[in-house]
Every structure is written in C-alpha cells, then in structure tokens.
C-alpha cells in the first residue's frame, strides 16, 4: 500500500477537527474529501448514547427513564414474553427514545477544488497522524517505519487518546506500505443536508422514534469507508473499533472487558452461524458466552447460549423510499414457537386508514393456539428544508399510533404537533440560517385506564467542534387517571383528587450546562477539568433529586433535598483507573436545613480486571476508613470464575475473629455444582440425561444429618424447557425416606402449568387468558360427608373499562379493571353449582386498589374504599363499618402518622 502525503494549504469553510473529535476508526488523510464526508456523517449516529431504566400495572410491562445526562425520554413496553430453555427467553418489546425520534438523518456533503505537484519511503508499518487546530487548519505527518503492527498500534493509540495538550486534536491510524509525498492546495465547502432515510425505519419501520428491543448493527458506508455501530437493544449504542488487544470489547466507551464484538471469518468453526437465509458476519459475545449473531448488513440472525439453545431470526425484503431493506418476518424460539411478522405497505395510499404490523405467536404443538399483537401506524406529511429554507422534498413518515395487546386492550400514543424543527449545521455554531430535520416527540402515552404526559424544552448542543444542533430535553412529566361521565358518555382525565386536580407523579426537570459544553466550549474535547453539568427533578411531594457530572460524564454528586430543605448527598470522590464511571470511593452525608453536614461516612469499592465488583466496604467513619485493619473487617470481597464471570466466593467478617464464606462451584458449561453457605452446609447439584428427559437433582442438608432431595426432570412433553416430573425426598422423624411425585403438563404457548397431578393421581387444572393471567384453578374431585362427589373451582374474571356505582366522591367515575373471584362448588353430574367467597377487587391504572367489595349471604356487600395522594401513596382507607384510617408522611416520604376514626 502506498499512502499519499499532501502538503496542503486550506481556505476551508470546515474545521476538520470535527471529524477527529468524533471518529472512532481509522480515517483517510485529512484532505481525502470523501473520507472526511464519511466521518462527518458518522457524527450524528454517535451523538447520544442512552442508558437504562424502572416498572408499573395497566402499565405493568412498561418502563420509563428520563436520562439524567441527556434529558431524553426512553419508554419501553414489553408486549410478549415467551419463556425458553435454560433461561433463553424471547421478549417482543418496543422502545421509544426521544433522542432517536428525528424523522430524517443529519448529513453533510463535502466538495473541493484543487491544484496539484513526488518520493517514496521504505516499506513497513507507519502511523499517519492528522493534527487539527481550532479554526480550519490541519496538518498530516507520518511516523515510522515500525517493525510490527503491534508497535505501530501502540504509537497510534498514544496519539488517539492523548489528553496532555488541548490546543490541538490528533487522529492517528496505522497502515503497512510506503509514503508518497504530494503537494496540493484545497478549498473545501460543505452542504448540510437532511436525509429522509432513517436507520430505525429501515430496520424496524415501527414509527419514528420507536424500535423493537432487539440488538442490531448499523452499517453505514460513506465514499468507500464503512462505519459500524452496535445497538444493544436497550437504547445504548457503541461505535465498533476493532483493535489488536484480545481483551478489548472492540466497542468504544463500553465499560468492561467481559464481552466482545468480533468479526466472523469465512468458515469459522467456532463462531459460524447461518439462519438458512444468510451467514453471520459479526457476533457479540456477552459475559455468560451468549452469542448474538448479525449478517453483513447488520440484521439480527440468531442468538445462541452456551448450552446450544438458540433463537433464529428470518427476514423479508421491503422497500422504503426506493431502497430495499430486510425486516424481521419470522422468529423461531428455543422451545419451537413460531413468531411471524406481517407488514402492510399503505403509507402512501390515497385513502389511508393506518398501516399495520401484525405479530402472531403459535404454539409449537398446536398451531391454532395463538396470541397476537397489532401495531397500528399513523402518518405525517413532512418537509425537508435546506439552510436557505428551501423545501427539498415532502413525504410521509410513520408514527406509532396504537398497540392492540393480546387481550384486545388498546394503548395509544400522540406526539407534539407540529413536529419540532431540529436545526443543524456541521461547519458553524450559528443556526440562523441552518438546515433542518424534525423530531417526533412523544406527548401522550394513553393506557386503558390512565395516561402519561410529557413536555419538552429546547436546547442547543455542539455537533462536533465546529457545528451545532437543536436538541430536546424532558421538562415535565405527569400521570392522570381516566374517568367516565355517564351523563355525557365521554371519558376525561384528572389527578387522584378530582377537586384539586393535582397531577399524579408530577415531575419537573431543570438542567444546568450541557454535556457537550455548548455554548462556552466548542466540544467535549476542550472542556476544562473543572467543567460540571447537572440535571435536577422535583417530585410532586416537593422532594428534589439532583445529579452532577464532570467532563468525563462521571457522576460527581447525587443529592436528595426534602421539602424541609434537609439533604442526603453522595459524593463520588475517586474512580477506577481502568473503568472511568466505576467509583472507588464514595462519601455519604446528611445535611441539615441550615447546611451543616453530619453522619459523614465513606464506602470503598474495587473492581476486577474485567470490571466486576471485587470488594465493597460497609459505610465507615473517616477514622475507620483510614485504618486498613479496621477497614478490612468491614469489607465484603467477591471472587469469580474466569470463563463465565460467575461468583465463586463471597467473604465477610461477622466479627473480628470470624471470617464467613459462601462459595460456589460450576461445571464446564457454567451450571452450578455446589453451594456452601456461611455455616459450611453444602447443597449439591447433579445433572444427567436420562430416558425421561434432562434430570436435575438437588440435595440439601437438614438438621441432625438429615437430607432433603428434589429432582426435576425436563421431558419432551415440556420441550425440555419446563419440568414435567418433580420428585421430592425427605427423611421423616422416624428416619424413613419419604417420596412424593408430581407430573405437570404445560400450555407451551404461554409457558405455564396446565395440569399438576400428584402421587395419588389427583389432578389440579389451571386455565389462563391470553395475557397469561389465571382464570380458573380446578381442584381434584373429592367425596363429601354426604357421600356425593364434588368439584371445587377457584375462578377469576377480568373486566376492563369498568367504573363502580358505589364509589365515594374521591374515586367517582374512575375507569378501572375489576377482578371478580369466587369459588364454585358443584356436585359431579350436575350442571350448576353453588358460589362462595364472591369478591370484586377494583384496581386503577396504576395497580392501586380503589375499592374491594366482598359478599356474604348474611350481610350482603361489604365495601372498603382506598384513596391516594398525588404521588400515589395510600392516604385513606374506609372499611365496611365506616372506620376510617388516614396516613401522612414525613419529608423523606416515610410513613409518619396513622389516624383512626371509628364509625364515621
């Protein structure tokens, strides 16, 4: 290879330092215009890396996170969970991310004019270093030759990650060849262009800002150079940067050395994988050796665990804006269930009535037994504008409008209208004029019995050292319950108390400074050590939570302030040298309303060479923390096995002379073999393949040298995923070995027990609805005192969209789910039975009981009412005798006072 060196004189509109600041892989020489354009376009896909998230019950499969660093909203909703073999479950979930909600992609085109005037060096390994200064001047120089690639890599790495000089930025890449010198003069111009092609749409087409919670690889090519981004399926993304370091994850900014993203070589005997459509080209190997496979175009093709169980993904081609992309069409999970995706293509139809994606899951043994989910998309007509406000193009983009779940319940979504403009420029901090894309910001998530509302505030962020872009951060979120007015036959939304109409979980957000340093600093690379940025949210209870970060995005402090101005503060004083966000020393203190700190304590943590927790101290005073001997007595240490990073030993001191130990051993596949507790009692595990299926035997020690043994057999009727035979052995008081056996059958679609037959042949039968909720438990038949045979069944019925005529003024007209339960006793051979223990439990959209109605023949209905405050804490209970209990809370939101009033 011959590398050109160009002695260049720039009259540039573009500060090339931008691409050095954000580029993770090797790049062509500074004056390679096509290479420069590629790196610039790769900036936008790396601008935000989201984190992770919590849970609720009309929304019991919903998780929400407001990222404290970026201010973005992430909403994850799990539609289907299919239990699999050895824990290899399959979940069908959706994620909305406001920072990924732009309907078009920020891009730039670079053009140049040039005039051109050549020497060759010796053949070898060289390092090309491009050095850029603030403004528009960059220069390239070469180091070498070096005798080996590893020697060149060390030099390359030193330049790429040097932080000793902030007056310029270096970008280095290694190559093998010769150096040829050429003299040229260049004039570089840029055009900022929004591109209607969007990665999430080309991969999932679920609606702008939404994607399925599956990993994928984004592969972008700009002028011959390929950029890879690994999306982990949670919202986090990492640039792929292959290095010679075999312990490296090859993922930029991935904290840990317990995983690896690697390229698969042709005919690789270890990592080769094929889904019958295409072979895998990349694989992500997690710490437990689970492998996630991707084709050359980045589509997910398979997941395989260390036991050989696998999930296979297949695809169908669809066209978006004239380009053909593969979309998931079928998934076969580890149990043999088939999940199919069926797509409509109606977004450009004249008579548009929505565009559907249907997801259907089939029982592996009974294809007519199915559950399904439907995603219904709406559309928006949008226009792309250049930096002169000229309309480039108008077209339709999809928005996720409704989701019809397995029980036919509907969740709906609406977005800010009109769409928010997102200005951007790569070569200037001024956004007037600018090119535009647009953000589809989620404004309302409407559940069957409640809703969540979101508001945003605009800010400006750096887009590389010379560019800028608009961004949106959550400013407020709140919830409301849904009520129904029978007089007008309409539903409406309020807080828990309709009189005050205070919103539920009303939370406001405020931000100080920005993670990119705008407007004071041009990029994160030139932020001073003292730079801090923070976010704070205030709950409806008056409590505030503030997090402060430094330039490395390390959390510096986390502080909780009550309505009485008392504080609890955690200061992260020191961090691990290898893992920048893992703290090694924390200071914890309470602060009075007057600002005086007290009860100051310290916690120390250390980490393994791959990033696992190695030790942690209890909270200690300064004196205790400084004394090594005392500190050791209050330290818990952890040891791991090297292959799967599983815990093998935990040690801590009960008192000065008593060191306690828990330990684990594992087989070569990472299955637990023994667990020894702190009392030195050992539980043993044995695994074997037998004629009935895969057998797991567990033996536990009991008192007086007795033992208890359990056996689980995973047979073919349970697809070797669920235990079909369970045996229990124990030693009774007479030292006799007692055995009991149960045999289970399963609803394989849901992964739930259908029948359970004991040693005497008596069978309990279970039924479920499509959401997996139990609807009946039929106990074994028995003979009554009258000599007749009876059956007894516990029944449950679920009624959504109900409101009670017996509500008090606070709960009036709230739309709820009613769980009706009762026992039905029936004489064998008769058509009708007798009902006992009738009860209605009435729950709101947050899973809070609003009313419980219990019936008996003597007294009729007994009703208990419940009320909640604006952060959904219980504050009032009134029972059937009109006894009232009220609850109040201290500023730390702990229960403080119970007041009882009798017989109101």
Commentary on this structure:
This protein has 904 residues and is mainly β. It is built from 6 helices and 58 strands. Strand 34 (567-575) and strand 35 form a beta hairpin. The chain is globular. The N and C termini lie far apart (91 Å). Among the domains are: 17-107 and 193-553, no CATH class; 773-904, no CATH class. The protein has a 46-stranded antiparallel beta sheet that branches.
Q: Which consecutive residue ranges, at least 5 long each, have pLDDT under 50?
A: 1-56, 113-117, 183-188
| Radius of gyration, whole Å | 32 Å
The helix fraction, in percent, is: under 10%
Shape: globular
Report the major sheet.
46 strands, antiparallel
Oligomer: single chain
Report mean pLDDT, rounded to a whole number.
87
Class from secondary-structure proportions: mainly beta
- The DSSP helix count reads 6
Beta-strand content bin: over 45%
- Give the beta-strand count: 58
Report the end-to-end length measured between terminal Cα atoms. 91 Å
Keywords: Signal
Protein name: RHS repeat protein
Signal peptide: 1-29
Organism: Cohnella faecalis
Give the helix/strand layout.
Elements: E1 2-10, H1 17-22, H2 33-46, E2 62-66, E3 73-82, E4 90-97, E5 105-115, E6 124-132, E7 138-146, H3 149-160, E8 169-195, H4 199-203, E9 210-212, E10 216-222, E11 225-231, E12 237-239, E13 260-263, E14 282-285, E15 291-294, E16 300-304, E17 310-320, E18 323-332, E19 338-343, E20 355-362, E21 370-385, E22 391-404, E23 410-415, E24 420-425, E25 435-439, E26 442-446, E27 450-462, E28 468-485, E29 490-494, E30 504-512, E31 532-538, E32 544-550, E33 555-561, E34 567-575, E35 583-591, E36 597-607, E37 613-617, H5 622-626, H6 628-633, E38 635-640, E39 647-655, E40 658-666, E41 672-676, E42 682-690, E43 693-701, E44 707-714, E45 725-731, E46 737-747, E47 752-757, E48 763-768, E49 774-778, E50 782-783, E51 789-802, E52 816-827, E53 834-843, E54 849-856, E55 860-868, E56 874-878, E57 884-889, E58 895-901
Parallel strand pairs: 1-8
Antiparallel strand pairs: 2-3, 3-4, 4-9, 5-8, 6-7, 6-8, 10-11, 11-12, 13-14, 14-15, 15-16, 16-17, 17-18, 18-19, 19-20, 20-21, 21-22, 22-23, 23-26, 24-25, 24-28, 26-27, 27-28, 28-29, 28-30, 30-31, 31-32, 32-33, 33-34, 34-35, 35-36, 36-37, 37-38, 38-39, 39-40, 40-41, 41-42, 42-43, 43-44, 44-45, ...
């Amino acid at each position: 290879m011959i590398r050109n060196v160009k002695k260049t004189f720039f009259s540039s509109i573009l500060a090339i330092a931008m691409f050095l600041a954000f580029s993770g892989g090797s790049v062509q020489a500074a004056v390679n215009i096509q290479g420069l354009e590629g790196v610039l376009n790769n900036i936008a896909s790396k601008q935000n890396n989201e984190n992770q998230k919590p849970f609720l019950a009309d929304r019991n499969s919903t998780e929400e996170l407001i990222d404290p660093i970026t201010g973005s909203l992430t909403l994850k909703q799990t539609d289907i969970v299919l239990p699999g073999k050895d824990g290899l479950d399959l979940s069908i979930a959706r994620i909305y991310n406001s920072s990924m909600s732009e309907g078009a992609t920020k891009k730039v085109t670079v053009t140049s004019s040039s005039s051109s005037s050549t020497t060759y060096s010796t053949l070898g390994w060289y390092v090309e270093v491009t050095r850029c200064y603030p403004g528009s001047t960059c220069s390239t120089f070469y180091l070498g030759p070096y005798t080996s690639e590893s020697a060149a890599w060390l030099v390359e790495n030193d330049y790429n990650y040097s932080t000793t000089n902030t007056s310029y930025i270096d970008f280095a890449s290694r190559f093998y060849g010769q150096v040829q010198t050429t003299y040229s003069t260049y004039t570089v111009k840029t055009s900022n262009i929004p591109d209607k092609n969007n990665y999430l749409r080309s991969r999932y087409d679920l609606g702008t800002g939404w994607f399925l919670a599956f990993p994928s690889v984004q592969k972008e090519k700009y002028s011959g150079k390929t950029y890879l981004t690994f999306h982990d399926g949670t919202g986090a993304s990492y640039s792929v940067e292959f290095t010679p370091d075999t312990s490296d994850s090859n993922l930029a900014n991935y904290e840990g050395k317990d995983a690896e993203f690697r390229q698969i070589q042709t005919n690789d005997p270890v990592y080769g994988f094929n889904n019958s459509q295409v072979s895998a080209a990349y694989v992500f190997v997690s710490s437990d050796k689970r492998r996630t496979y991707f084709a050359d175009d980045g589509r997910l093709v398979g997941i395989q665990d260390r036991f050989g169980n696998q999930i296979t993904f297949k695809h169908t081609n669809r066209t978006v804006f004239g380009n053909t992309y593969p979309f998931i069409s079928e998934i076969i999970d580890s149990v043999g269930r088939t999940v199919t995706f069926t797509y409509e293509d109606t977004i450009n139809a004249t008579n548009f009535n929505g565009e559907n994606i249907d997801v259907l899951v089939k029982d592996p043994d009974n294809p007519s037994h199915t559950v399904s989910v439907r995603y219904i998309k709406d559309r928006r007509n949008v226009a792309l504008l250049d930096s002169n406000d000229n309309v480039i193009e108008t077209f339709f983009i999809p928005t996720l409008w409704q989701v019809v779940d397995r029980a036919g319940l509907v969740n709906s979504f609406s977005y800010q209208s009109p769409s928010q403009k997102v200005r951007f420029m790569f070569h200037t901090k001024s956004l007037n004029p600018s090119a535009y894309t647009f953000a589809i910001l989620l404004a309302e998530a409407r559940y069957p019995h409640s809703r969540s509302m979101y508001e945003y505030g605009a800010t400006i962020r750096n887009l590389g050292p010379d560019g800028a872009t608009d961004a949106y951060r959550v400013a407020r979120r709140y919830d409301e319950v849904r009520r129904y007015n029978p007089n007008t036959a309409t539903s409406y939304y309020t807080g828990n108390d309709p009189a005050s109409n205070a919103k539920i979980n009303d939370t406001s957000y405020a931000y100080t400074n920005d993670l990119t340093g705008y407007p004071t600093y041009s990029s994160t690379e030139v932020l001073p050590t003292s730079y801090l940025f923070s976010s704070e949210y205030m709950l409806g209870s008056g409590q505030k939570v503030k997090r402060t970060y430094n330039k490395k995005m390390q959390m510096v402090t986390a502080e909780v302030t009550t309505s009485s101005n008392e504080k609890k503060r955690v200061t992260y004083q020191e961090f691990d040298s290898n893992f920048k966000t893992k703290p090694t020393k924390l200071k914890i203190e309470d602060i009075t309303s007057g600002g005086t700190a007290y009860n100051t304590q310290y916690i120390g943590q250390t980490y393994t060479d791959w990033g696992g927790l190695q030790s942690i101290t209890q909270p200690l005073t300064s004196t205790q923390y400084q004394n090594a001997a005392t500190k050791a007595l209050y330290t818990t240490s952890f040891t791991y096995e090297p292959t799967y990073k599983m815990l093998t030993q935990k040690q801590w001191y009960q008192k000065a002379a008593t060191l306690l130990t828990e330990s684990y051993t594992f087989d070569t596949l990472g299955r637990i073999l023994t667990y020894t507790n702190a009392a030195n009692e050992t539980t043993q595990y044995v695994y074997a393949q037998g004629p009935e299926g895969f057998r797991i035997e567990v033996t536990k020690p009991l008192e007086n040298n007795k033992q208890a043994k359990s056996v689980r057999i995973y047979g073919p009727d349970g697809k070797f995923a669920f235990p079909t035979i369970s045996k229990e052995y124990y030693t009774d008081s007479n030292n006799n070995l007692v055995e009991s056996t149960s045999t289970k059958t399963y609803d394989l679609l849901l992964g739930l027990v259908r029948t359970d037959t004991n040693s005497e042949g008596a069978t309990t039968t279970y039924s479920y609805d499509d959401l997996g909720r139990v609807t009946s438990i039929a106990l074994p038949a028995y003979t009554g005192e009258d000599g007749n045979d009876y059956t007894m069944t516990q029944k449950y019925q679920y009624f959504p969209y109900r409101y009670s005529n017996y509500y008090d003024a606070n709960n009036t007209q709230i739309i709820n789910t009613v769980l009706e339960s009762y026992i039905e006793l029936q004489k064998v051979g008769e058509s009708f039975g007798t009902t006992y223990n009738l009860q209605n439990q009435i729950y709101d959209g947050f899973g809070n009981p609003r009313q419980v109605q219990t019936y008996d023949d003597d007294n009729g209905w007994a009703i208990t009412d419940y009320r909640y405050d604006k952060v959904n804490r219980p504050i009032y209970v009134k029972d059937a005798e009109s006894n009232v209990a009220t609850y109040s809370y201290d500023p730390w939101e702990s229960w403080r006072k119970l007041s009882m009033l009798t017989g109101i």
